[in-house]
Amino acid sequence: MISLDDLKAMGRSLDGQILTTLDQDKEFKIEFVEEMGFIFTPVSSGKPRKHQFRYAQEVLKRYNETKSWHPRDYRDITRNASYVLPLIQLVEEKKRTRILRTPIIAGNWKMNTTVAEAVSLVMAMKDRLDAIKGVEKVVCPPFVSLVAVGEVLIGSSIAVGAQNMYSEEKGAYTGEVSALMLAGLCQYVILGHSERRGYFGETDEIVNKKIKAALKAGLKPIVCVGETLEENEGGKTGEVITRQVRAALDGLVSLENLVIAYEPIWAIGTGRAATEEQANTTIRLIRNVVGGLYGAAAQELRIQYGGSTNSANIAALMAQPEIDGALVGGASLKADEFVSMVKQTAQAKQRRR
Ligand code: 13P
Q: Which CATH architecture best describes the domain 104-352?
């Protein structure tokens, strides 16, 4: 049984993308309009056709009864069946294979930008980023700029994230910031970044505590894992990553709201990104580790790659099936560069659909 909610969720994730009819005869753009329905625009004619949810509901009812893929079997309900059926098929595929993950590109600004610079930077990319569909976009400025950046982004499709937080809710922890404090200011929080682990002594155990505190406060953690150059060259990548992932997820009942970022330490800020095959292989390994713990839900978990990504290497990385986005450092401080990366991600992932 496919519900209208399933169909809406699929429509939302495909908003702005080009699909083909089931007979592969016609390409059309799909737009999702909350409270109304879908707008299908055949590429050949360019004439938009509205398909309201009440018709979609009728189509679904018949589809659930008959399982027919022939538009003619729905002609008495709607003339748009050839456009809505591919959407139903994608929901079926997702139910079967659960592989449709919305890519997520997050910019980790690290300890860069004053408040004024942060505002200029986000203003320089806001409209262009907002216009890109099919990719979740996140910017992670320093704590002190969260409010100002969040204000610029009100009403846009761009989310805000913090770069760290402490695991306690409140109390005598001078200089620290809690999940509760962040909850009203941002949606995401990067946790366990290798710079936090390396310079500030964060252990797997601390990272696990922070993840639990973030989830409890309604924040979505972007959890970083990654091996050192020495571990990589010593053939220890699998072992290290498995340990970090297991420890990070220890005691979590669900993967909901969680994103993992695979950031090999040797690739961060070095200009030496992992090859797309390396990144894809390690991310597949992470998914397998998570699959061992959570079963099929691992297929829905988004796993990013991070480390010297830029507008020149993003397309190849995003063409890989296991890589669901990027956590971008240096390149996220340049508006044109970051916008280009998000745009290329949308294109690469659309091609794979
Ligand atoms: P760079 O993209 O500058 O290598 O940084 C990656 C990173 O650490 C993102 O969190």
A: Alpha-Beta Barrel (3.20)
Radius of gyration from C-alpha coordinates of the chain: 21
Cα dihedral sign, 344-275-287-213: negative
Q: State yes or no: is 263 an active-site residue.
A: yes
Q: Is the CB of 328 under 6 A from ligand 1?
A: yes
Residue spans of alpha helices (H) in the chain: 4-14, 53-66, 81-97, 115-130, 146-153, 179-183, 194-200, 204-216, 229-233, 237-249, 276-294, 314-318, 335-352
Structure confidence by residue, pLDDT tens digits, 272-325? 999 999 999 999 999 999 999 998 889 899 999 999 999 999 999 999 999 999
Mean pLDDT value across residues 162-184 = 98
Cα separation of 222 and 324, whole Å?
12
| Helix, strand, or coil (residue 178) | strand
CA of 196 to the centre of ligand 1 (A): 13
As annotated, the residues of the chain forming the CATH 3.20.20.70 domain(s) are 104-352
- Mean pLDDT, residues 215-232: 98
For residue 41, the number of C-alpha atoms closer than 13 Å in the C-beta half-sphere is 13
Dist CA 314 CA 326 (whole Å): 8
**CB of residue 269 inside a 6 A radius of ligand 1:** yes
C-beta of residue 287 within 8 angstroms of C-beta of residue 326: no
Percent helix, percent strand, percent coil in the chain, to nearest 5: 50, 15, 35
What confidence score (pLDDT) does residue 353 get?
Answer: 58
> Is 199 strand, coil or helix?
helix
pLDDT at 99 over 60: no
> pTM of the full predicted structure?
0.75
